Amino acid sequence: MLKILGIKIRIRDKGGLYSNIQAVVVCNHQHSFDLFIIGSILPKGTVTLGKKGLLMIPFFGMLYWIAGNILIERKKHKSAIKTMKYVGKIVVEKKISILIFPEGTRSWGHGLGKFKKGAFHLAMETGLPLRSVVISSIHKNIDIGRWNAGEVLIDVLPDIQLPKEREDVDDVIASIRGTFIDKINELDQNLLNHSRTA
């Protein structure tokens, strides 16, 4: 699909992405292309967490579910909490990693959205490290109207172990989100500099 769209992927720093260590993986969510982009680099043994509404997308929804990805109903808070506990149990028992978009929805070029707490609580409860995958800005660097639409630059940050104390979660999330913002700006600048010298 990426070849059809003319999108090139370059991982500048793979970090621990291809290690055998399980993790809760978080990634910025910008566009419908994200699933193709992140899907092209995720190692085996990694599933994603998505909303049940994806099942309504013809063909894709059913394939997404059959592939072992986990679906939750986001609108029902109690159901989501119960599901996240179930997700944690499955992740640990099956020894898999799980990718979650902490923004919860696509930003569509409006900057990094607010991070929801689910992924971070999951990392705390399971004791798994948090692995951050940061993708350069789609809206700034990709033009689907061109044959060669552009390049996506990705960095995988070193794993971090979150504290067990839940009262610290807001500060932890704010710090990680700030790191994402800085890294996205760095990746975008790198692509800009690369295009100037190409």
Task: Describe what you observe in this structure.
By secondary structure, the protein is of the alpha/beta class. It has one domain: Glycerol-3-phosphate (1)-acyltransferase, CATH 3.40.1130. The chain has seven helices and seven strands; from the N terminus they run αββαβαβαβαβαβα. The protein has helices at residues 2-5, 34-39, 60-66, 77-94, 118-126, 138-141, 169-197, and strands at 7-13, 24-27, 46-51, 70-72, 97-100, 130-135, 150-156. Strands 1-7-6-2-5-3-4 form a seven-stranded mixed sheet. Helix 3 (60-66) links the parallel strand 3 (46-51) and strand 4 (70-72). Helix 4 crosses helix 5 (118-126). The longest helix is centred in the C-terminal third of the chain and has 29 residues, at 169-197. The mean pLDDT is 83.
What percentage of residues falls in helices of 4 or more residues?
Answer: 25-40%
Structural category is alpha/beta
CATH architecture: 3-Layer(aba) Sandwich
- CATH topology (level 3) name: Glycerol-3-phosphate (1)-acyltransferase
Q: Count helical runs.
A: 7
Question: Over all CA atoms, what is the radius of gyration?
Answer: 17 Å
Strand content: 15-25%
CATH level-four homologous superfamily name: Glycerol-3-phosphate (1)-acyltransferase
| Topology, number of strands | 7
State the distance separating the first and last CA atoms. 25 Å
Topology as a string of helices (H) and strands (E): HEEHEHEHEHEHEH
